[in-house]
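Page 42, continued from yesterday. The earlier attempt failed because a stray header line got pasted into the input along with the sequence. Redoing it now with the clean sequence only.
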Amino acid sequence: MIWFWQEFLDWLPVLVTLFYIVLTAGTLTWILMTKTDTTSAVAWCLLIIFLPFIGSVFFYFFGWQHIDKPLERKKRHKLAFRFPGHRPGSGSFTLTKEKAEEPTLGESLARLADRFGAYPRSAGNHIDFYHEGQPAFDAMLQAVRAAQHHIHLEFFIFHADDIGRQFLHELTAKAKAGVEVRLLYDAMGSHSLPQSALSDLRQAGGKTSVFLPLNPLRRRFQINMRNHRKILVADGKVGFLGGLNIGDEYLGKNPRFGFWRDTHLGLRGPAVGDLQRVFCEDWDFASGEHLTEGKDPEKMKQYFPPPETGGPFPAQIIDSGPDRDFKSIREIYFAAILKARRRLWIASPYFVPDAALLDAICLAGYQGVDVRFLGQFVPDKQVPQFVARFYWRQVVPAGVKVYQYTKGMLHSKVVLVDGEWASVGSANMDNRSLHLNFEINCMMDSPEAVANLESAFLDDLSHSIRLERKVYAHRPFAGRLLENAFRLLSPIL
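This time it went through. Structure tokens are written below.
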């Protein structure tokens, strides 16, 4: 026995070396065959080479965007499920002006979004704007209490803290009263949500489901492809979306973050039906319950009632995810940046753009567009902040004004162009939101809506500090080194 172990130890370096060669060669082949973006492929290849073994494990958990059978099913039925009587690019969008006239910025982007799979732009919506957590949660809870038929919730993060328990208490009461309650939460974002917190809701007849459970035995331990959407729909008449999850930190109760600045929307009108369709599709995928297939038309009217049409705002719901042929929200951000002529204002907690988005932002700055980016001063995640600082170093010389919000935690996801167009939703200005996760935004081209968001943006700037190019260039070497090192992770941030 001793001789066996002695010989094994003699051969161990050779075996490890052979294993390393096979693992590295296999992983590099895997990257080259699956990564279509050159920058991402190069970054991953370098990581594999310079971090033996660890790099391969890292790629398996963070870089591999496999679409397994459930997601293939989701992709196959998406068009028929989401677009009854409508296909992207089918010409359902109609200009409000004569065809001979140049379309407005909003019309141009709406038509382009239609080609990328967004829902049709709809007029007649009422939109309420919420710039912090308390009024948004008050409105959402009021919608829950007023619901008569169903309440649908979909959140990346759902905590069982004070505000989470308040939501669960109200949902449980409505379920006991016979209202259909469905709660969908992401397995990764809500990993700390104990199942015991949901027991009363389930016993009352409410339904819960988890998006892409973390189950390594079924090859579903996916750190990427998370459902980052935040949706609430009550009776198919009232809807909410934006940046707020359910948790006390969104009320400013976490001393680490302090005041929480976010942007959330409340909707009434035709756009609510589109929010409902996104929820139904995600619910069907996660739970297996198809809310629309084979249903009686009268029953369907309860999920999709005739919408209010007297509101002043046009709106267009756009969602994106790894099951889509187009990175819809990313493409609209890119187009909006290129179309900016006077001003381009962006608020996002994270700034990790891909190469093309970075070039577009710099080009806008070089052309004299008033480009302003509002990000975090005290970050909630250190690594993305180091990467953002690396990219700030590139955009500031182009004339981009970079601001850091000092009042508290900046979590808004807002893009504003020329005082004519706005996007609000769950998608950050980073690769994780625009390439890896499931997201949802609302686009608006009403002057009144854009003015509301611009006013809030300017107020945020009054609580921010601007990066000074000369001062920023002399920051400590150690920080610059970390920025350059962590930017190698930008494809997954």
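Notes: DSSP finds 17 helices and 18 strands in the chain.
Reminder to self: strip header lines before submitting.
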